[in-house]
Specification:
Strand order of the largest sheet: 4-1-3-2-5
CATH class of the largest domain: Alpha Beta
Number of domains: 3
Helix content: 25-40%
CATH topology of the largest domain: Oxidized Rhodanese, domain 1
Largest sheet: 5 strands, mixed
Radius of gyration: 20 Å
């Protein structure tokens, strides 16, 4: 079994580019694959490898400025869920596009998974899912508000258009691992709210710690690797991902006339040109050829 580690840390990096070569070398030399994002505001990513490899990578990350007390979430995978190791430089480790948002200044009240059910069951609490619509579609907490956003950068506008609906209410927000809520709670605090809460460790920590028989979670949790989704106990959920748009594809979707493996799904059938579809078909063909040779195709 391989270990999958999901992590983020908001901290100040004066020169993120200088950190990239060392991180990449440690990960590659220990057979670790996945993706790490570096920005002036910190680090974010998910990596997978052997126990030894993950320990080495995490040690290198904890040695970065401000990362000594890094927290991360672990799960298991039977096969490597990533094709390669990437360390990318970004403007933000999670893109919200709000220059004044600073999670290092203040964030909402953290709520432990064991206390989350009581908070969101309170009728005076509004529960908001800060993830994208395609993630919400396969699973969310009972009664949660879905903003219907296609990217996290749309959340501030959605809030401005809907804030009057939630006047006088306590706001509780959640996301996959917690990182988006660091920014969304800071944003709401900056809008004058004070009763703002978020799930510590995100959905992944909740699914790991809260017994299924006590859970208020419904469905699967989308993850950004080849497992596609996980359920209670962080067990892979059995979904596939569309080779074109990267959205999750359920069994019913795969039975649709709009589904072509590697090329289209019901959600994206009208989103791409014929030239795009031809390119997707060729990529899928190359992936099948690589699989027959016992290799993994890494083309874009």
């Amino acid at each position: 079994m391989l270990t999958v580690a999901a992590l983020y840390r908001f901290t100040r990096f004066s020169d993120p580019a200088a950190l990239r070569p060392g991180l990449l070398e440690v990960c590659v030399s220990h057979g670790v694959k996945g993706s790490l994002l570096l920005a002036p505001e910190g680090i974010n990513g998910t990596i997978a490898g052997t126990r030894e490899g993950i320990d080495a990578a995490l040690a290198a990350i904890r040695a970065l400025p401000g990362c000594a007390d890094l927290e991360w979430k672990e799960s298991l995978a039977e096969t490597m869920p990533f094709g390669r190791m990437k360390v990318k430089l970004k403007r933000e480790i999670v893109t919200m596009g709000q220059p004044d948002v600073d999670p290092l200044a203040r964030v909402g009240h953290y709520v432990a998974p064991a206390d989350w059910n009581a908070l969101i069951a309170d009728p005076d609490t509004v529960v908001i899912d800060t993830r994208n619509a395609y993630e919400v579609a396969i699973g969310t907490f009972r009664g949660a508000v879905d903003p219907g956003t296609r990217s996290f950068g749309e959340f501030p506008l959605w809030w401005q258009e809907n804030r009057d609906r939630f006047a006088g209410k306590r706001i509780a927000m959640f996301c996959t691992g917690g990182i988006r809520c660091e920014k969304s709670t800071n944003y709401l605090l900056g809008q004058g709210l004070n009763q703002v809460y978020h799930l510590k460790g995100g959905i992944l920590k909740y699914l790991e710690e809260v017994p299924e028989e006590e859970s208020l979670w419904q469905g699967q949790c989308f993850v950004f690797d080849d497992r596609v989704s996980v359920g209670h106990g962080l067990v892979p959920g059995g979904l596939k991902v569309c080779g074109a748009c990267r959205r999750p594809v359920a069994e019913a979707d795969r039975a649709s006339a709009d589904y072509e493996e590697g090329v289209s799904c019901p959600a994206c059938v009208n989103e791409y040109s014929q030239a795009d579809r031809a390119r997707f078909r060729e990529r899928h063909r190359q992936m099948q050829l690589a699989a027959k040779r016992g290799r993994k195709h890494l083309g874009g």
